[in-house]
Design brief:
Five copies of one chain form a homopentamer. With 83 residues, chain A is mostly beta strands. Chain A has a single domain (2-12, 19-75), classed as EutN/Ccml (OB fold (Dihydrolipoamide Acetyltransferase, E2P), Beta Barrel). In chain A, 6% of the residues lie in helices and 39% in strands. Chain A is built from one helix and six strands; from the N terminus they run E-E-E-E-E-H-E. Chain A has one helix spanning 55-59; strands spanning 2-9, 14-15, 24-28, 34-38, 48-53, 70-75. Chain A is globular. The A-B interface holds A 10-16, 18-19, 24, 32-37, 53-55, 57-58, 65, 67-70 and B 1-3, 30, 40-41, 50, 52-57, 59-60, 71-78, 82.
């Protein structure tokens, strides 16, 4: 799993049905790249989280058929970023 | 999921049967690399979209056996690219 | 899916059974890296093709149990490479 | 599989149910990037380990539904890092 | 699939059960990075091989439940490395 920081929400009216009403978050990885993840744990802007990718991302959702390849797995209690 | 911009269509007469009649789009990621994605949401040139990869890409299609590893998951209402 | 160019065939006498008699091609990606792909569409040297990776690579073969992680999905009619 | 070194534990009170009570370790890969992995073998700080990613990461856990994309597969008896 | 060269064996007494008694090899990819792969074909040090990753890596083993994400798929008869 990778460690990323929550940057904000993603507003996206028109999307595939398989994402249901899951919340989408914009995360930033350690290279500064912005990614989109499904959030089943209720993370807030600024939180450090770890994410599961691949098929694990789907299984980490309440509904395993959620069409995601990146899902927040937990909020990290304490974290000092690299560098 | 990753955020990319739609560059255009991909013309490809000779292809595997498992892609059916799905539309193929050329996308550009944040590094400028061009990728090919299946488009079930009707994105247009210039749109910012987010994409699902891996097995989620197949499940994001109306037909889950579609032989894709990258599928557009939604059109982003508003987006400011990095940099 | 990614866009690559066919460089040639791969000669490989000793290989796992699960690849059957599928043709193997050497492809070059946009960074110049050489990769090996299964070819179910009959691509020729110099052709621009797009490739499916992951589980989609197996499903893109006539026999879904083919042990590949990269399969040619189609030959592109026209393509201007990056750069 | 990749070779990484164990840096420490990850403290994470709020996480998805599918990780159960599995221990989480912070690993460092050969580029210095820190990653989070599930540890079913009891690795200690400083150990060199190899890791399985993707669906293999789930199967490497006692409970295959564990929602991980990176799992320690073994502790390496002897290893000289690159460089 | 990727092309890599066999560097040697990996000695690893303590490992997950799901790898059984499969031989583990250290491979070097085209960037010089060292990776660990399961070897069902009997490759030797110095051999050029191609590898399957992801779920294909498991299916390329005699036992598909082998907990690997990288498996040697064949020994290349002749190969001129890049550069």
């Amino acid at each position: 799993m990778e460690i990323m920081q929550v940057m904000g929400r993603l507003v996206c009216t028109q999307r595939v049905e398989g994402l249901g009403h899951m919340h989408l978050r914009i995360l930033r990885n350690n290279k500064g790249k912005q990614l989109v993840a499904v959030d089943p744990v209720g993370a807030r802007e600024g939180n450090w989280v770890f994410t599961a990718s691949g098929s694990a991302a789907r299984f980490a959702c309440p509904e395993p058929s959620t069409q995601t390849d990146l899902t927040i797995g937990g909020i990290i209690d304490f974290w000092t970023p690299d560098g």
